[in-house]
Amino acid sequence: MSCPAAAAEEERAPVELGATYVTDVLSVADGGIRSGTAWLGRADVTASIDGRVFGIDGAELFFDVMRVNGPDFSGRFVGDAQTVSNVQADSALRPYEAWISVPIGRLTAKVGLIDLNTEFDVQRVGRAFLNSSFGIGPDFSQTGVNGPSIFPAPATAALLRYEDADWVARLGVFDAVAGSLRNPRRTVFRLPGQRGALLVGEVERKLPGEGEVQLGLWHYTTRFDVLDPAATGKAKSQGGYALVEGKLAARGSAALHGWARIGVASDKTNPIGLYLGGGAAWRDEKHEIGLAVAHAQLGDPGRLATLAAEGGADRAETTIELTYARKVLPWVTVQPDLQYVINPGWVPSRDDALVVGMRFSFAFSTK
Predict the structure, then answer these.
(1) Tens of pLDDT, residues 313-367
(2) Contact 154, 144 (CB under 8 A)
């Protein structure tokens, strides 16, 4: 009798192509900086090449070219720090990922231009939502001069992954500077660590019922300017996060999934010192409805910096998101969305913002 896993491996095409397009039409109905509507979009074309093509069983070569369009909706209309759309970025066409992974016994080595959030701090239930905090926590995404090798500017990296039936362990070394400092629309290829390094480690324990627990730590080898307007010098940037998620209930083919995440960051160099987030989503094959909350709290130095810049500073920004996704065709999903942002940008004079929107997702694959 043949092994199903081996049979599936034999049936896999040597080259698999894919294309996705995600577009948001968002509007500030009340509050924020000002009322307004914007169209945002992200398109990706991908190619995955099986290692058998170049004689390495189990290896994979992956490429992703990305096009982003749209204005700075959060900056121009909402005024929030956490960003209500996870496809918002400077308009550009650029290489996004380009890496090779190779199995070494129970380990897998991966080298190249890598989106950190495909390996670390992955909120699987949270991916159903539009707000950026439900993809990677803002305590982590705020770090670095261009972000920590995430959308829209990845960095070169080298990482190792160990996986067995119950455990996954990951260790990554990323270049400390993602993309170009002079032109945010450019992708830059450097050796990992050429501009300093971002070190990331994560341990994941799988739980019964499609659940898991994640514990992660990150640290920059370079130092950053302190935020306190009355202080000078540089300080470390480091932090950690913990996440638990899993199936809470099931009924036939539908299930309720939930998650909770906490993250901390050194507040001397990062505005957000503490983040709490999570929520739940009920889904079946064609529908998904979810409610989630993202709470980002300023550290004392970040609050002093906001106070100096804005004349006032609230302690926390909180976003509540209600979303509903309906798969109308195997390759088309329509998703109305509602977000309420409390204390956007931590600015007391800025009214809470009500954001309404619609997401359209298109996905094609040769799999």
Answers:
(1) 999 999 999 999 999 999 999 999 999 999 999 999 999 999 999 999 999 999 8
(2) no
Residue-range domains of the chain with CATH: 13-365 (2.40.160.180)
Encode pLDDT of 201-233 as tens digits.
Answer: 999 999 987 899 999 999 999 999 999 998 889
Q: What is the dihedral of CA 205, 207, 210, 215, to 10 degrees?
A: -30
- ∠ Cα 51 56 61 (to 5°): 30
Cα–Cα distance between 152 and 96 in angstroms, integer?
A: 8
Closest to 101 in 3D by CA, of 39, 160, 187? 160
φ, ψ dihedrals at 11, nearest 5°: -80, -15
Handedness of CA 296, 301, 305, 307 (dihedral sign): positive
Beta strand extents in the chain (DSSP E only): 15-32, 36-50, 60-69, 92-104, 107-114, 155-163, 167-175, 197-207, 211-220, 224-225, 234-235, 238-251, 254-265, 272-283, 287-298, 316-329, 332-342, 351-365
Residues 6+ apart with CB under 8 A from 177: 144, 145, 146, 155, 188, 190, 195, 196
**DSSP structural state of residue 196:** B
The C-alpha atoms of residue 212 and residue 247 are separated, in whole angstroms, by 10
How many other β-carbons are positioned within 10 Å of the β-carbon of residue 64? 20
